[in-house]
Automatic annotation (TrEMBL):
GO biological process: phosphorelay signal transduction system; regulation of DNA-templated transcription
The UniProt record lists the keyword Repressor: no
Stretches assigned to the Sigma-54 factor interaction domain: 145-371
Name of this chain's protein: Two-component system response regulator PilR (NtrC family)
Length: 450
């Protein structure tokens, strides 16, 4: 076995990194870089040598090439996941091999580097990996996701796992189900917790400003650019960039975002060179991204880049057993310790309600009820629940309609009512419906509304 070791410093005093690559020059480059960072590298040239090294000693990080003489880097990733679950492993892929990188992240890799290995990116990856938390015990922060239903227990367990990775995450779920809260918890539990968490509502940025908002601009790049300015990518350096309502990105911006994610580099508007960025991307939307891909409004390659790992936030109607603890938590938040309480009948009424707006709607209902109720006890009449005739409510009245026809009819009705209230002003109607103007225009065309 030809396991080589760097002997520059006493090993007992250093964090140890296992470097697996069959190319001697790559091993030497990484070994030298790690040594200058005060780390000790142990090098292996094959899967067998790597497993022998793992059996013989402990490491704080593993870097492995994807192609080895006696196997694949994915074999190493899976082996470490099964036998050394607390050891972060990153893969080194051939340039432009996006499929390999995605496969490695799904297999449990912490992050990836593309060949030729950029030393700045290597150092950033190592610093992030060595800041990973040692334990996976829950803390009070994670309890912010209130509820003991099986689905919420699964969500909290998934957040613990995702926090130890650098893989892009796609959080799906209906409006008000807690997608941003989940993203913040993943960031807070990750190695990037000391860095910034930058949330961006993709549907709220005018299309002509998107590139400069995301990537920044140089002085003089356009009229009004009187100084250099960083964008969201630079602002999130060392931390997490949260792209909310990512389905609302126009196709032209999707192309630029895809390149930034793949190359981990961005170019400011008006600049001729790219600069590296060190951040993690989490995205979310209440829309069905796969359907958007099939409709041609969302790029398939970007979808697979963002949807490496999916975290689904369950709607409130799927975890009705969490209603009572949620009520206590939200009332404490709204009113403090001396908050009113809900009668058993009021709790029952909430458990029979479908909550199309999920936890956000529950909070709104409780805030209204506590403001209007006469005493310290909230009764069902104080809740003023909406009639159960919308999406997610009682579907018995739809007769022989298919589900698609029924949903289209409800959507058409809601749009027409909004247009009537705004006297035909589409921009105002979109705001009233809580969607972007571009989304409303697409819906108008799909439903044939003039």
């Amino acid at each position: 076995m030809s396991v080589t070791r760097s002997e520059r410093r006493p090993r007992s005093e250093l964090n140890r990194v296992l470097v697996i690559d069959d190319e001697a020059d790559i091993r030497e480059l990484i070994d030298l870089t790690l040594s200058r960072m005060g780390l000790a590298a142990e090098c292996a040239g094959s899967v067998a040598e790597a497993k022998a090294a793992l059996a013989a000693g402990s490491f704080q990080l593993c870097l492995t090439d994807m192609r080895l003489p006696d196997g694949e880097g994915l074999e190493i990733v899976r082996y470490i996941g099964e036998n050394h679950p607390r050891l972060p492993v990153a893969v080194i892929t051939a340039w432009g091999s996006a499929e390999n990188a995605v496969a490695a992240l799904k297999a449990g890799a912490f992050d990836y580097l593309a060949k030729p290995v950029g030393l700045e990116q290597l150092r950033a990856l190592v610093r992030s990996a060595l800041r990973l938390p040692e334990g996976v015990a829950e803390n009070d922060e994670l309890r912010a996701l209130t509820g003991e239903s099986p689905s919420m227990q699964q969500v909290r367990a998934m957040i613990e796992k995702l926090a130890r990775s650098q893989a892009p995450i796609y959080i799906s779920g209906e409006s008000g189900s807690g997608k941003e809260l989940a993203a913040r918890l993943i960031h807070a539990r990750s190695a990037r917790s000391a860095g910034p968490f930058v949330p961006v509502n993709c549907g709220a940025i005018p299309e002509n400003l998107m590139e400069s908002e995301f990537f920044g601009y140089r002085k003089g790049a356009f009229t009004g650019a009187d100084s250099d300015r960083d964008g969201f990518f630079q602002a999130a350096s060392g931390g997490t960039l949260f792209l909310d309502e990512v389905a609302d990105l126009p196709l032209a911006m999707q192309v630029k975002l895809l390149r930034a994610i793949q190359e981990k580099r961005v170019r400011k508007v008006g600049n001729v060179t790219e600069e590296p960025v060190d951040l993690r991307i989490i995205c979310a939307t209440h829309r069905n991204l796969r359907e958007r891909v099939e409709q041609g409004s969302f790029r398939q390659d970007l979808y697979y880049r963002l949807n490496v790992i999916e975290l689904r936030m369950p709607p409130l109607r799927e975890r009705l057993e969490d209603i009572a603890p949620l009520v206590d938590s939200l009332l404490g938040k709204l009113c403090g310790d001396g908050h009113p309480r809900l009668s058993p009948a009021a709790i029952k009424a909430l458990q029979l309600y479908s909550f199309p707006g999920n936890v956000r709607e529950l909070e709104n209902i409780l805030e209204r009820a506590t403001a209007l109720c006469a005493g310290d006890l909230v009764e069902p009449d104080d809740l003023h629940l909406e009639p159960e005739d919308g999406v997610g409510g009682d579907l018995q009245g739809r007769g022989s309609e298919t589900l698609d026809d029924y949903l289209n009819r409800l959507e058409r009705q809601a749009i027409l009512e909004a247009l009537q209230k705004t006297e035909g002003n589409r921009t105002a109607a979109a705001r009233l419906l809580g969607v972007t103007f571009r989304s409303l225009r697409y819906r108008l065309e799909r439903l044939g509304i003039e």
